[in-house]
Give the backbone structure.
Amino acid sequence: MITLKKLLWIATISMLALVMITAPGWCRKQASQSPGVNSALYKPARVDEVVCEVGMVANRITNSTVEKVTGDNNYCVLLGDDSAELASMVWKTPAVYSQNSYLYYASFRLAYNGGLIGFTSDTSDSLTVKTSADPGAISAYDTYFSITDRSDLVADDYEQPGVRIHAYTYAWSESYRDDFIIYDFWVTNISETSLDSLYAGFHADLDVTTAEGGSGAGAFNRDDKVGYYRDDLNHEYISYMYDYDNAVIAGDDTGGNKIPKESAGYCGTRLLYCPPTIGSTESTVQSGHGWWDWNSDPDTPGSWYNRITDGLWLSEPPSPHDFRYLQKLGPFTIPAGDSIRIVYGFGIGEGVEGLRANLYWAAYLFDHNWVGPSAPPSPTTTVEPGDRQVYLSWNDAPESALDPVSGLADFEGYRLYKSLDGLLWSLQGDFDIIDSVGLNTGLVHSYTDYDVINNTTYYYAVTSYDRGDPVGGIESLESGKTPAYTAVPGRNIITPSQEVHVVPNPFIPYYYLKDSWYFEITNESASEERIAFINLPGRCKLRIYSLTGDLIEEMENTDPSTKVLDWDLISKNRQKVVAGIYLFHVENIDDAEDYDAEGNKIVDDDTIGKFVIIR
């Protein structure tokens, strides 16, 4: 039996396959080439990936050097997910488009001696992740790995010089610094000779908006434009891309074609630090900005080298297309055994000024050794699902946390959020200290949510917020909704004080379709429907009757440790049961003391109940 749910799933997969086959923007991605090397020879031996999503920007972080869709090895540090399986510079603003990716993939590349320095994942160590709860963490979500060039990798007769990249990322959840991720690269010369005239480039292939947000052929990647902001005096260098007006669509659909705009963000990178170039004493100076469309992708180490080292500042293109941008740095000298540091803020904002304002805070944090105004940490939370309820409790550790800038304990309250998908959140409660600021609702450390349906998955998050600093112009700061906690009330909830009962009750097919609570069809059971009998007394016999006393089904639980039995709503005559009121009888056969020496039951601890099926 094919359900509506399965039909929708099949239709979705079919449409995605059609887009992959026919869309010009997708086809050109598959046609991109490795830079002069057979990538099949260098498949990653150890690949780790995580999604940084503590703030309003989410992005895949990986030590893989291989594109997922094409299988091409780029021999560089990759950012984002070209396959769109994981977040790739997703901006969670507005929340209704919280899965909208801005990035195909980006890369950090090193150019030297006429070619590219080549890295492969089999030289990488594992990806390390720290959160704000871990000792030594710098941000709410830190990552780290190192990767080394391949001394045996020869591309276009280019021999690797001996370089290791230490790649760090940092991200935060507070509102003033939640729209960017920091990428902090330390480039170490592990050879025995000095590396002179080494260049670096940050390349980004942004496809602003997903297919759902576009209209017409290539709407999600061929209506983008490139720009840059340059301030040599204050060392502010930002390259960016944004969704432009699609000429094949009537009207102006800049920023998207929905209300609210689904792609209003400008996505880009700001150079936060690089060392002085050869012959200069001034740090954090970008040497050029470039762009090209998909027809002009570099396809050899030499062509990449030329792009990174040409020193040109290309102005914004006259019309939109499927573009990439490139921030060019260098040349630098790295003595044997020494390192240089290159740091970027990768973020999103509304318009150029919004992007500048967000990345200003990235620069501020770098200049202040990553220390900025901070919300109290989220409390450690315990979630206990029950029958038609979820009980949450949390500790009071945030109440004594000190702000790293002011040094004060400025905790003000907790907020409890709930979600059905972990993306769109609704506020359930605001628990504020009774003082001279805020709502003065009073602090609590527990909450019972009765507005739930059994066997439905719910997401919860408890955040902490401070009182802010009106004198210093800092608003109240709130911790992020990560980690989120899940709970499924009703299912397999065993509490000695609870009686045997049925979930869901009443049974309505809409619920199991909506909540994905169904059986897989097998030869033993041809039904996707089910109900569960909860809190059984161990070994028992379960009988189900109609109101007229007809025996509908009989089952036995033979495992004393199992307290739940499922029924697929198929009668003992192998018929699907109809709508109506039904009775159940649970006979406890587990306790020997319930029977006399002749085996007659002398203790009546059976349970009788009823449930409803609605069709």
